[in-house]
Amino acid sequence: MNVKHRFEPHDSASAAVVVGTDGSAASAHAVAWAAQTAAERGRRLIIIHGYDLAATRSVLGSYDVLVPSVIETIRHHGQQALAGAERIVRQTHPDLEVDTQLSDRNPAELLIDLSSEAHLVVLGATPGVGSFAHLGSTLLAVTSQGAGRIVVVRHDGTGQAPRGGPVVVGVDASPVGESAIEAAFHEACERDVELVAVHAWSDLSEGRFAGTSYLDIPIAELETAEHALLSERLAGWQEKFPTVTVTRRVYLSGPRKHLTEWSKTAQLIVVGSRGRGGFRGLLLGSTSNYLVQHAHCPVMVVHPD
After folding, report:
1. Three-state DSSP class for residue 103
2. What digits encode the pLDDT tens for the residues 136-155?
3. CB 293 within 8 A of CB 128
């Protein structure tokens, strides 16, 4: 059964929060976070499970006699995963509008398709078991190829993801990073919390830059210029969100180090998916990739509209 719903763009009042589940503890953690977010914002929650029928048929190959029973078993597992996820939601949000969808499509392709019209797409991740434990390649595919705003909620067994603290955004010097700044202001406004804008003019972590010691670089002049750049990037958004208090932090280097440190006290880290300039590392596979795996709070990866 394929999902047939059509969603409005993520800023539309009717856009849903979409969360993927595979029945694991990590996905249960993500479902709880997604349900809380949907309830706070008066949005519908869509819980998705894709069991990838084509891949199953490919693996079974010529064992045609096994196909019906195996597919039925996989479908049953999917139905159980969805039922379990809905029970989690009902325990804390009995009145929330919830739609569960079982699909025979590849889960990554399904979530990527839905991401362009969802308010948020939420996935769970478990640290310590490979690079991307929960949903395996699905997590990597959705965060790198999805549209709009993808949130990864890491499950470490300590309970609910943090809800206190500021929203923290990594700000780079490129036009494509504008979407991350916009999303961060929206999130801080929705949550009525402070926004911390973190900017590092270099993504290097060593003591040399282009073969030159940092001691030989006019750091004070660079720092002044980078503070001016950050102010310029934020000015227009501060006018659009006058109620959001903004704290600015400029660092010499090491964006992922500083963002990871901020994630210990933040309730959400927001990063772009294709940063350039000062945040050259904000390609999935570098800073964003690192934060998805190691941040201590949920991470929102924002793709340019």
Report:
1. strand
2. 578 888 988 899 999 999 87
3. no
